[in-house]
Design a protein that fits this description.
It is built from 16 helices and 17 strands. It is an alpha+beta fold. The strands form 4 sheets. It has a 6-stranded antiparallel beta sheet. A 5-stranded mixed beta sheet has the order 12-14-15-17-16. The N terminus and C terminus are likely disordered.
Length: about 650
C-alpha cells in the first residue's frame, strides 16, 4: 500500500536562522521607532539651539540695551534738570541785575553754600558779556567743601561758546549748551547759557555756567533711580583694563552697544556718552542679570525633559499598540504556520477574528489550509484504496495461478470417478441383495463386483495421489493469503486529526434507519482535546462500526428511546499519553461470557447471526494503531460501554488492518 503525505515543509526557526539571518518585525519596528525618535530629538535639539535659545538671547540683549538706555536716559535727565535749573537762574531779572552791579545782597541771599546742596550743583559761575568772571565758586555738595576749579577748565568752557551778543536776531532762549564735559576735576554735567531778562527780550548781559560733578554718589543715586547696576569710566583720563578696551573698540556710531557674556549670571552691556564737543567722554558699563536667558535655558531644559518623557510615553504606547495590532497577530500567524509544518496538523485553524488586512490574511490562510486538508484527505483515501485495489488484484492473480492446476486435477478426479461405473456396481449389489437371480447370474455379478472393487481401489489410490499433489497448490494459496494479511497490516501514513470532526464524519457512515428515535449525545469537551496523529480512514471505520453496533443493540432491545453518549478525555502517565474515547448505549447489553469473545473472529451476539467480523477488524486495526479497545457491560438489558484508546505520540501508524 502506498500513502502520499502532502504536508507543509518542516522548517523550524533555528533552521531558518541558519539558512538566512532573520530579523523579527518587532525588532524592525523598534529600530524604526528609535530611529524616528533620534531624528526627532536631533531636529528638536537643533531647533532649540539654533532658533529658540537664540531668540531668548536676542530678547535678553534687547532687555540689556533697554536697561543700559535707562541708565543713559537717567544721566540725560540729570543734564536736562541742570539745564532747567540754569535757565531759571539765567532768565531771572535779579541775575541780570547782579551781572550789572554785582550787588552783595544777591550773593548773600542766593549764592550761599546751601544753595549748592539744595540744587545738587557743584559749580555756579557768572560771566559778563565779555566772558569776564563776575563771580563764581565750586563746592562739594556732600560736605560743602570748596573745590578749586582751574582757570583752564573755565576757559575751556567759555571757548566752546560762540555767542555773538551783538546779533539782534539770535534766539537766545534756545542757545544754552548742555551736556557732559571732561575736566581736571572730573567729568561733569554742564549747562551754559546767556543771562537775559525774564521777558526774554534784549541782548544777553552775561553767561551763567552751572555744573554737576559725576561723582560716585551721583552714580549711586542714578542706580537707585533706574534699578540698574552700572559704572562709568572717563575716557582718556584713566587707564582702562583690557576688557574695557575690547568693549570700547567694539563700539562705533553704527554699533553703539556691545554686550559681553560672562561666565556668571550677568551680562555686561557697554556704550559711550559723548561730551558737548561730540567726542566720546564716558564709557558706561551696565550689569544685566541673565533672567531671560536663564528662563530660556530652563524652558529649553523643561522642553527637552518633556520631549524625552513624551517620546518615551509615545514609544511605549506605539510599541504596545503595534505589538497588539501587528506584531502579536503576525507572530501568532507565523507560529501557526510553523506548527503546521512541524506537526502536519492540517485540521488546526488560527481563527483570527479581525477585520483588517491581517485578519483577511489569517482567514485566507485558514481557507488555504482547509482546501489543502480536503485535498490531502482525498489523496490519502485515493492512495489507500488504490493501494488496496492493487494488492487485491495481485492477490487474486496469484490465487488464480495457484488454483488453475487444482481445478485441472479436480476435473481429472471427477472424470475418473465418472468412469468407475459406480451406478452399475450399485445395481449389481442391489440385484444380489434381492436373491432372485440364478446361480450363474449371481456368479457373474460377484465377478463383476470383485473386478469393480479392484478398479475402485486403483481409482482411490490414484485420487489419493492426486490429492497429495493438490495439497501443494492449496498451501501456496494459504501463503498468498498470509502474505495478503501481512500487506493489509502494512504501515500507513498518519495525519493530524481533530477528534470532534472525526466523530462527526463517522456518523455520516452510519445507516440513517438506525438513527430514528435515538438520541446521540456527543460531549462538547471533545472539541478541546488536542489533535491526534493517526490514520483517518481506519478510525472512521472503527468509530462507525462501534456506533453502528450500539445502534443495532438499541434496535434489538425493548427501549422505546435509545441513547448513545460519546465522551473523551486525555490520559497521561509516566509511560503513556493517549486519548480515551467512551461510547455508551442503553441497548440490550452483553453477557459476561460473551465479553471474553466479543472481539474474536466470527463471534457475534446479534440474533440474526451476522459474521461478527466488524469488532474483530476494529480490534486488529486499533492494535495496529498501537492503541487498545475493550468493552464493558453490567449484563443483559443494561447497555454496554466500548472503550477506545488512541496513543498520543508522533510516530508512524503500523499494522492497519483492512
Amino acid at each position: 500500500m502506498v500513502f502520499v503525505d502532502y504536508g507543509f515543509s518542516r522548517i523550524t526557526e533555528g533552521e531558518q536562522t541558519r539558512k538566512g539571518k532573520n530579523v523579527s518585525i518587532r525588532r524592525k519596528i523598534a529600530f524604526i521607532l528609535i530611529l524616528v525618535l533620534l531624528l526627532y530629538f536631533g531636529l528638536n535639539f537643533g531647533i532649540q539651539k539654533l532658533v529658540i535659545y537664540p531668540s531668548f538671547v536676542s530678547m535678553q540683549q534687547d532687555e540689556a540695551h533697554k536697561n543700559l538706555l535707562r541708565c543713559v536716559e537717567a544721566m540725560n535727565r540729570e543734564v536736562h534738570h541742570l539745564d532747567t535749573l540754569m535757565r531759571d537762574w539765567a532768565f531771572w531779572d535779579d541775575t541780570v541785575q547782579f551781572i550789572n552791579d554785582t550787588n552783595q545782597e544777591y550773593i548773600d541771599s542766593c549764592l550761599l553754600p546751601e544753595t549748592y546742596s539744595q540744587n545738587r550743583t557743584n559749580l555756579f559761575y557768572f560771566f559778563d558779556s565779555n566772558k569776564k568772571l563776575v563771580w563764581g565758586k565750586a563746592y562739594d555738595i556732600t560736605d560743602l567743601r570748596p573745590i578749586n576749579v582751574p582757570q583752564s577748565c573755565l576757559d575751556k568752557f567759555l571757548n566752546s561758546l560762540n555767542y555773538d551778543f551783538e546779533n539782534k536776531e539770535t534766539n537766545w532762549v534756545d542757545s544754552p549748551v548742555t551736556g557732559i564735559v571732561k575736566s581736571e576735576i572730573g567729568p561733569m554735567f554742564v549747562a551754559v547759557g546767556p543771562i537775559i531778562p525774564s521777558n526774554l527780550e534784549g541782548s544777553p548781559v552775561g553767561i551763567l555756567l552751572m555744573a554737576r560733578l559725576i561723582t560716585p554718589e551721583i552714580v549711586k543715586h542714578l542706580v537707585e533711580q533706574t534699578q540698574v547696576e552700572f559704572k562709568i569710566w572717563e575716557l582718556g583720563e584713566e587707564e582702562l583694563s583690557d576688557r574695557l578696551n575690547v568693549a570700547l573698540n567694539q563700539i562705533s556710531d553704527q554699533n553703539p552697544y556691545f554686550i559681553e557674556d560672562t561666565d556668571t549670571d550677568l551680562l555686561l552691556d557697554y556704550t559711550t556718552l559723548k561730551d558737548i564737543y561730540g567726542k566720546p567722554a564716558l564709557l558706561v558699563q551696565a550689569y544685566i542679570p541673565k533672567k531671560i536667558m536663564q528662563q530660556g535655558t530652563n524652558t529649553i531644559r523643561y522642553a527637552r525633559v518633556s520631549s524625552i518623557v513624551g517620546s518615551i510615553i509615545i514609544l511605549v504606547v506605539l510599541t504596545i499598540l503595534l505589538q497588539r495590532t501587528i506584531v502579536t497577530p503576525l507572530k501568532r500567524l507565523k507560529n501557526h504556520a510553523i506548527h503546521l509544518g512541524n506537526t502536519n496538523d492540517l485540521s488546526a485553524r488560527i481563527q483570527m477574528k479581525r477585520r483588517d488586512e491581517i485578519g483577511t490574511l489569517a482567514q485566507e490562510f485558514d481557507n488555504m489550509v482547509k482546501r489543502l486538508e480536503d485535498t490531502h484527505k482525498k489523496l490519502l483515501e485515493q492512495s489507500y484504496y488504490t493501494g488496496m485495489a492493487d494488492i487485491a488484484s495481485g492477490t487474486l492473480h496469484n490465487i488464480r495461478n495457484a488454483l488453475t492446476p487444482v481445478a485441472a486435477q479436480l476435473c481429472m478426479i471427477r472424470e475418473e470417478l465418472h468412469n468407475a461405473s459406480l451406478e452399475k456396481i450399485d445395481m449389481a449389489c442391489r440385484e444380489l441383495e434381492q436373491g432372485n437371480a440364478s446361480p450363474e447370474r449371481n456368479s457373474e455379478l460377484a465377478n463383476f463386483i470383485e473386478t469393480a472393487h479392484k478398479d475402485l481401489l486403483h481409482v482411490a489410490k490414484d485420487i489419493y495421489s492426486q490429492l497429495d499433489e493438490i495439497q501443494h497448490p492449496i498451501a501456496n494459496v494459504e501463503k498468498i493469503l498470509v502474505r495478503q494479511d501481512e500487506f493489509s497490516r502494512a504501515s500507513g501514513t498518519g495525519e493530524m486529526l481533530n477528534l470532534s470532526d472525526l466523530i462527526k464524519d463517522s456518523l455520516t457512515l452510519v445507516p440513517d434507519r438506525l438513527m430514528k428515535q435515538v438520541v446521540l449525545d456527543v460531549s462538547p469537551s471533545i472539541k478541546n482535546l488536542p489533535a491526534i496523529n493517526s490514520h483517518r480512514i481506519s478510525l472512521l471505520q472503527i468509530f462507525s462500526n462501534v456506533i453502528t453496533n450500539a445502534l443495532e443493540s438499541i434496535e434489538g432491545s425493548s427501549q422505546k428511546f435509545g441513547r448513545i453518549t460519546i465522551s473523551a478525555s486525555e490520559e497521561r502517565n509516566d509511560t503513556n499519553h493517549s486519548i480515551h474515547i467512551l461510547v455508551e448505549d442503553n441497548g440490550r447489553g452483553i453477557e459476561a461470557d460473551a465479553l471474553q469473545h466479543l472481539f474474536e473472529r466470527e463471534f457475534s451476539t446479534k440474533p440474526n447471526g451476522c459474521s461478527g467480523i466488524g469488532l474483530h477488524w476494529c480490534a486488529n486495526t486499533i492494535i495496529g494503531l498501537q492503541g487498545n479497545i475493550y468493552a464493558r457491560s453490567d449484563g443483559p438489558g443494561k447497555g454496554a460501554r466500548v472503550h477506545i484508546l488512541i496513543p498520543m505520540k508522533d510516530q508512524k501508524v503500523t499494522n492497519i488492518r483492512d
